[in-house]
């Protein structure tokens, strides 16, 4: 059974970098499915796709977040990560990792001083 689990700090200060990790079990990050994505949902708003890393290692980012977003993976740990720089309170959201329809439970990140 494929499972994804997000982890990271729940509170980040403005201007800092938000860093989240998604641990994958039940599948290999380099040989199973094709894209591993990060998606977020700000309070009261819809889902926003942030970006993805493909099975061959290529990155794809939302144009609106591209300048601040980096997605990478650690194949030895079977996990992939999100970094979002220069955060503001508008980056407060529930952050999800996803792969081919499998979703993590989500982790709440609040940007506040």
Helix content: under 10%
The stretches of 5 or more residues where confidence is low (pLDDT under 50) are none
Radius of gyration: 13 Å
Question: Helix-strand pattern, N to C?
Answer: EEEEEEEEEEE
| Largest sheet properties | 7 strands, mixed
3D architecture notes:
- The chain has strands at about 5, 10, 20-25, 35-40, 50-55, 60, 70-75, 80-85, 95-100, 100-105, 105-110.
- It is mainly beta and about 110 residues long.
- The protein has no helices and eleven strands.
Record the SSE blueprint.
Layout (H helix, E strand, L loop, with lengths): L2 E5 L3 E2 L5 E8 L9 E7 L6 E7 L4 E3 L7 E6 L4 E6 L8 E7 L2 E2 L3 E5 L2
Brief digest:
The protein is mainly β and about 110 residues long.
Q: What features would you highlight for this structure?
A:
113 residues, four-stranded antiparallel β-sheet, mainly beta, 0% helix
């Amino acid at each position: 059974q494929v499972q994804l689990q997000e982890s990271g700090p729940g509170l980040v200060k403005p201007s800092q970098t938000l860093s989240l990790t998604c641990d994958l079990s039940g599948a290999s990050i380099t040989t199973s499915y094709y894209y591993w994505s990060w998606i977020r949902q700000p309070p009261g708003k819809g889902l926003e796709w942030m970006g993805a890393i493909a099975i061959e290692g290529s990155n794809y980012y939302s144009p609106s977040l591209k300048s601040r977003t980096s997605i990478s993976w650690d194949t030895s740990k079977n996990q992939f990560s999100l970094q979002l720089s220069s955060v503001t309170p508008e980056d407060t959201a529930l952050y999800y990792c996803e792969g081919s329809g499998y979703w993590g439970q989500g982790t709440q990140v609040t940007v506040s001083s």
